[in-house]
Amino acid sequence: MAIIDEVTGSHTRRQPPVTIEELPDSPCEAQPQPSTESATAPPPDSSFAAQLKAIASRLVPPDDPSGPAFQRTAAAALRELATAVTSPEWDKLSREDQSAAFLPAILLNFPSPLSPPSSPSSQPLVIPTPPDASSLALHLLQHPLRTTFSHPHLSAGTRARSRPHGGPNAMDDLHDDSAWKTPGVDNALAWCASQLSASEVERHLSLLLPPTLTMMDDWQPMWRDRGARVLASWIDKVDPEELRRRGLDTLLLKSLTHTLSLHNDPPLYHVFPVTLSIAEHLEGERKALAYADIVDRALVVGWTYASSSAVTVLVDIAQNAEALIGVLGAGVARWLKSIVPSLLAPLQHEPTPNRLGLYAANLSTLLALLKTLRGAGRVDRWRGRILDVVARVWVQVGKYGYSGKEKATADDVLGLTRDVYAEVAAQCPSVKTHEFAQLRALDSCFVPLVA
Question: What ranges does the record give for the region Disordered, renumbered to this chain (predicted)?
């Protein structure tokens, strides 16, 4: 540029560019006429705009948004918003004004990421569906939600990078910058994704993937779980072949399986289901390796390092194990040396009321495992250990003396012990004449167990 300036400078003087502000007003320029559009499509009523602002202000959550008072206030405000979006005045608003009015509502669309998806406290508020919801969702993704999210492992074309953009410290820089951690941002992303069709999700993946992966790779486990919940809201809309072509299936599984190994208390309930969903679409050796990694991180690591007092974590591991048994089928026999002892060990603690749920979860998983191994000839070597521990459960739970809800759970546990005994007897008939006979001779309390 310096050479060009030097050459041209000897002939002509460069003029600065003329901006719009510098254009002089022409006295002959026709004055703008009143818009005829205002007669047919007047601007939105100021009272309607004020109404929307009042609704939005009532949707701003307090420090504890789960309180019943705010739940009632928010539910009433959302009902008013549902009426407002059906008004003709709503269509007169600009997309920016619609976004400003609607964003507080979708920020509230929790369940809490630290509650099981099926728990009563996790039931979401009813968010109204505005006209042209997909267009509004895209506007929200492109503007208020996009500005603070980027990820070093993603290219501008939303492909997985072999090395992080910004060098080896890029992930540390990402974690240091927490401007995106605003309450409910995951709820807003999940709502936007739910309004898009499969073709729209694939076309606008660059709007969804960076914020999702940023949350999934955060150093705080609760944000990882929120990211997994957002991922679950759109991952099934993307063709698995497209994920494979971009290298995103591997990138997502790497993040998810690392999160599985954390075994946070309270558990991260949204991570395991979406991990299985992605692994299900892999093929051949990649699928086998993915499942092996999931078993190791979700089950073996948890049983190895989780405290025996972390009952909620152990229940979550048992439930995940039961789901994996259903997926792997007889292939689960590869991990029997880890699974069977890990399911039996917690059953040898005193069955206090707070541990009854763990007893039920482990026995249910053990029963599912035994049924899956029918015809495989693998139960016989474990029968002695299983019968011994389960018989102790029968005695301890039967004599503990529970009441109320604990009594109902205890009855479920006793029912599961009978089912386990029946399954072992079906696969190893010799126990009926040996082990069962010894139990009947030992104490009459075992008669209902071995009947």
Answer: 1-70, 151-172
